Please model this.
Amino acid sequence: MMGEPSYADAVSAHYTAGDLGDTILVSLRAAGLDPDALQVEALAPLDQFHTGGADATRALIRRAGLQPGMRVLDVGGGLGGPARLIAHEAGCTVTVLDLSEESCRVGAWLTARVGLADRVAFRCGSALAIPFADGAFDMVWTQHAALNIAEKERLYREIHRVLRPGGRLAMQEMMAGTVGPLHFPVPWAGDASISFLQPAAEIRALLADVGFREVEWVDEREAVLSGMQVPVPGEPPRGPRPFAALVLGPRLPEMQRNAARNLREDRLTPVQAVFERLGVATNRPHPS
Model:
């Protein structure tokens, strides 16, 4: 088995707060939520780490064609916000795979609090060596995970492997825009050492090489820009603090402003896409 890339620990550390469970408890109570009587709907505005929040997750659920009883693997699923929505609203069984032990531990705790421990499980592990058997899942789901992974071909071959023939990959990701480099920090990386974006055309070609058929590809740059709420420097946050703010800390507003700037300047392209797994992966390596 190939070893983990040298940057894996840095990626895990980026999403680790150290005392996240206690911090979330305090934050929930401050927001007027009872940690002993949580509901998925109440958590959804807080536990989605990706652009567009719960609305984007629901849009991808519709695009993906999720059905009750499907087996779903959420690659890089963090604290499990999307997984809980998928289980609750689409009736699927979901396994979250994430590099961060803290995210898995706290995510499992939150999931038990909303009564979904029988439908959402957590596994600490690598997307580059997915610890499940061939064809184990009907759907692989990923939101803003591939942008922290340099080895895209290895990632998508692993996803292809664990999908049954005809299974689907549903993804919400950031692609490289026509202008570079990015302005850092951004929510997924403090600097370029753990940020790995590629142009959309390269990713689409790679997925075809690996053995996927494109079902839908939606460029969401204009929609994301029109709906973005960018923090104003010096202005205190309003309302309950999303868990991303608890994980990423005081630099999150700067990260969000840089993300918006990168989008405006065409350094980023956000997409939602759905692909179907064909029967056999090709052996032809994708050009680097």
About this structure: Residues 281-288 have pLDDT under 50 and may be disordered. Residues 45 and 54 are 6 Å apart (CA to CA). The longest strand covers residues 163-176.
